[in-house]
Amino acid sequence: MRNAECGMRNAEKSYPTNSMNQAMQKIIDLQRYPIDKPDSTKYKDLVKRCQNDLRENGMFSLDGFMFSDVAEKAASSLEQKFISESFKHEREHNIYFKKEIPDIKADHDVQTRFSTSNYTLCGDQVTDTPMDQLYRSSAFAQFLGASLNKSVLYPMDDALAGLNVMSYAENQQLNWHFDRSEFTTTLLLQAPESGGEFIYRKNLRSDNDPNYEGVAKLIRGEDEQVTQLQLHPGTLNVFKGKNTAHRVNATRGKRTRVITVFCYYETPGAKFTDEEN
């Protein structure tokens, strides 16, 4: 998926730190997550906790990062846009999002095809929303960079790609895949009536070992290290999607699952090509 393909690149400059404005204070629970106070002990403890969770679990989740009522209101405000303006993204794919896997037999389990379906709104369709305000916040980017041990992160200079909001209606799902980027950052806005669980298997492969047999075992449903996580509205989730296989169970019921995906780079001015967009 396009938003899962954005990478991170090196930069030498430091990210500017700006205090959170009054509007942001109404969006983020700064008492629990003081990302506006990078010099405070509580901030440093939070960053350390996120780093530890990433190292041990392959992800960190901050429940209630965005106030749940703000998240749910944002999802409701986009309901009509999803009906009239969104792009219905349906595709058949293997776990690698590749047409073929060299030197692997066609009947190998890693070649298994899956179905993924969702509705997508791009960044230029969700301006002036809490998600857009958060994406443009230098304090948020600085916090993510510190948690990810990155010296700097910048939002993309791309009206379509930097920020996407996705909706999963009944029976729609995001199926097994690896991301092309090192890390993936999401924020859940609305949970479905049932289903929509985030399923993942951390460190299933490495940059040096594709672990095809381990991937095949996962696809056959034989991997006992698979973990399931139910996210709540307002939860910020950051995970190592490049080597962690993951999927989202099909949504059940009339209420859609709505989630925001943020894409950052380590260099300013990043854009996708016209073909990618």
A few lines on this structure:
With 277 residues, the chain is of the alpha+beta class. It has helices at residues 22-25, 41-57, 68-77, 79-84, 130-135, 138-147, 212-219, and strands at residues 59-62, 87-93, 114-121, 154-155, 163-168, 174-177, 184-190, 194-195, 198-201, 227-229, 236-239, 245-248, 251-252, 257-262, 264-265. The strands form 4 sheets. The chain has a 7-stranded antiparallel sheet.
Secondary-structure element order, N to C? HHEHHEEHHEEEEEEHEEEEEE
Indicate the overall shape.
Answer: globular
Sheet with the most strands, sense and barrel status: 7 strands, antiparallel
| Spatial strand order of the main sheet | 1-11-7-14-5-3-2
Number of strands: 15
- Unreliable runs, pLDDT <50, ≥5 residues? 1-5, 7-19
Number of helices: 7
Q: Report the β-strand fraction as a percent range.
A: 15-25%
Q: Which structural class do you get from the secondary structure elements?
A: alpha+beta
- Rg (C-alpha, Å): 18 Å
- The pLDDT mean sits at 90
Termini, distance in Å? Answer: 11 Å
| Approximate helicity band | 10-25%
